[in-house]
Amino acid sequence: MNELIVVTGGTGYIGSHTTVELLEAGYDVLIIDNLANSRIEVLDGIEKIAGRRPFFEELDICNKAGVLDCFERYPGIKAIIHFAAHKAVPESVAKPLMYYENNLVSLINLLQAMKEHRIKHFVFSSSCTVYGQPDKLPVTEKSPIKIASSPYGNTKQISEEIINDTILAGDGLDAICLRYFNPVGAHTSAEIGELPLGVPQNLVPFITQTAIGIREELSVFGDDYNTPDGSAVRDYINVVDLSRAHVVSINRLLSGKNKRDLEIFNLGTGTGLSVFEVIKAFVEATGVEFKYKVVDRRDGDIEQVYADTTLANDELGWKAEVGLIDTMKSAWAWEQNIRNQME
Ligand code: NAD
Ligand code: WQD
Predict the structure, then answer these.
(1) What is the value of pTM for the model shown?
(2) DSSP characters for 54-92?
(3) Each residue's pLDDT tens digit, 236-274
(4) How big is the CA angle at 155 (ends 154 and 156), to the nearest 5 degrees?
(5) Ligand 2 — pocket residues by CB below 6 A?
């Protein structure tokens, strides 16, 4: 029998891609998701790619009794990858309690249920948001954590502390926190990808929706930053590359190669790209032009951030491989496929 990995939030954007990578690596997967920000049809996409369907439980992880009952029904869980969370920064400013409750109660429930069921291994989705606007670039895992600029960001900082404290308490937890930079793109099959509800907040889905005609034009938030072309700079990491890092992290935990302390890794490409560079890459990759205009800076945006990935490269033996052009092609193929399906 294959080893069973729980993926919370597994019908979501990064969770679905990671589920595919886990299945293809020979693991069994149990997805737990309440479908708050994803669709059940994602399971079909996963099955088409991987040739196997993950187990699926529709459950709110804030329901502790439900989590305990679920773990009873699936004996032999080896590890948990915890993606499930709310993730929209502006929404977290408007509804902080909803964010603190969902993102923190779910984490605490899982850690308690893991203790009860003697499940040791845990991988957590953290974010580059913990660095705020760094004083020095690129950012390493030792760069200072800045005061969070949103309740969402704060939930990631607090979550890392909760995990660290639980390890220090000697509760038998072994964990890796992965700090993602800006995940973009889709599986090359175009069977799964990012599907934001409503108006996209993030750059790449806004570009693909504009290119396909759902949005009229992209607003570029600011061209007066202190960057080479004036637009803001980020580290855009391909979602399949990002997902592979989760399989590597699970292998590391299961083979006992991790250090006993909480391990934290930046997951990015190491290269900063401006908004204008991303737009140019999309047009080059797809041949599709779309309208955009420069508007004021968006509140709360930082000027630039990109990762130093040396630790993930050396310790995990992982590195980003897919280039920006191929990533843009994958995002565009997914956008076209999903709109065809929805027609
Ligand atoms: P997503 O919204 O696509 O996926 C999250 C999934 O979790 C959704 O399917 C949602 O239905 C589910 N979920 C939320 N609350 C739940 C609950 N209480 N119980 C059960 N299921 C629940 O988001 P994503 O982009 O795949 O992000 C995954 C993780 O990575 C999140 O923790 C997010 O904060 C983190 N992250 C994302 C980004 C990014 O830009 N996408 C960057 C850094 C970190
Ligand atoms: C990227 C760049 C925008 C939309 C967010 C979260 C962060 C992390 C990743 C979870 C910025 C510009 C965007 C648009 C634009 N998520 N932009 N027009 O803000 O770097 O990070 O996602 O942990 O916490 O804050 O990502 O994709 O929104 O923006 O010009 O319509 O694109 O100003 O420079 P961001 P993004």
Answers:
(1) 0.98
(2) PEEEE--TT-HHHHHHHHHHSTTEEEEEE--S---HHHH
(3) 999 999 999 999 999 999 999 998 899 999 999 999 999
(4) 90
(5) 87, 89, 127, 129, 182, 201-203, 206, 218-221, 232, 234, 275, 298, 301
